[in-house]
């Protein structure tokens, strides 16, 4: 029997972020073989994304920090190779896909990566068409990328990376914003790629989603990597009963935007939760932006506590409606985690209580941008809830949460509604509907996807 050579190997890899005394990664020894799909789990902020950054060269070349140990590709050290040089062998999907978009138009984004690999124009045309068709983006090939939904952007970046066909794929929560169809397609493609010899290192909090395709499992705990699956637990929430509906706090009528058919009418009572569901690009984020005043409707009306908000400014609407965006980087502005939550007109006691409940209190003095994506989402939620809105809009904020963090987040949301507030959220995580006492509203796409 012929022994299979290692494709990627880390040797006693250690990494410490700037300003930290304790290493984020300690003595990481990991071997990845051709055709292998490896699952990498661990708590939010445990170092999973940091490991991927070290493998690609982002850390320490671009963000600084102290690095020791070695990284081998086919038994040769790649420490001296730049991010660009490593990309000949390593394809990466980052947690925040918007940070790896380089062009303005959908088709150009796929072409960009292939041109960087010096592929001939006729082959590029063929691969680009095939990739966009595979991910259901051919009708949008000439759109501006800014017109795509988060899920469509996720599909686009996955299409770009898979089109480049590097031997190693590092995927940081690639299922985050995908609908069911997109998730099933990606699972199928990863299996096909592994059969062709590509190596996949996959970060994902929803172990059950990828369980059947993974060959081996590792998880991070206190900076060290361990083989096998840790004991997992599922959220145990104090949901005593379905909410008792009282007065209506939000309702919409014939609401539309951009020339499309109207959205379904919504009616939200105090203490109630509405879960918006639907395929990528069906308009969930657009609807939340209309409710928050960030977009003005083409037709229809929105009433909050019996009063129309159509002619009100975003600032006026924000007195009653809090909005936690898909990308937390777009709404974190303070110098410390504590200051992000305890702002003017916010009770210090309430702010500290939220930080405690969301497992952020120990990070109070850190800069918000130094947190992991999952921690940033919990921080953005705390900052919005601390202002005591009557209604909270949440756009895919459960992404990037380990089971314990998800439990904390959902419990805080349930407590919020028990105080008489209302909640409208989007999520592609099928577990959320089981955990929250929510009624669902399905947005059905029609014709071409919403822009």
Structure explained in plain terms:
The structure is a single chain. The protein is of the alpha/beta class and 451 residues long. Helix content is 31%, strand content 22%. It is built from 15 helices and 19 strands. The chain has helices at 48-56, 58-61, 83-86, 106-116, 121-134, 150-164, 180-195, 207-210, 284-292, 314-317, 337-341, 348-357, 373-385, 403-418, 432-435; strands spanning 8-16, 25-32, 37-42, 66-73, 76-77, 90-93, 168-172, 199-203, 216-221, 224-227, 248-256, 267-269, 273-277, 299-304, 307-308, 321-324, 391-395, 422-426, 439-442. The protein has a 6-stranded mixed β-sheet with strand order 6-7-8-3-9-10, sandwiched between helices. The protein has a 5-stranded parallel β-sheet with strand order 16-17-18-13-19, sandwiched between helices. Strands 2-1-4-5 form a 4-stranded antiparallel β-sheet, covered by helices on one side. Strand 17 (391-395), helix 14 (403-418) and strand 18 form a beta-alpha-beta unit. The chain is globular. The model is unreliable at 446-451 (pLDDT under 50).
Major sheet characteristics: 6 strands, mixed
Terminal CA distance reads: 55 Å
Share in helix: 25-40%
Q: Please report the total strand number as a whole number.
A: 19
Strand content: 15-25%
The class by helix and strand makeup works out as alpha/beta
Q: Low-confidence parts lasting 5 or more residues at pLDDT below 50? A: 446-451
Rg for CA atoms: 23 Å
Silhouette:
globular
Q: Strands of the biggest beta sheet: in what spatial order? A: 6-7-8-3-9-10
Average pLDDT across residues?
92
Number of helices: 15
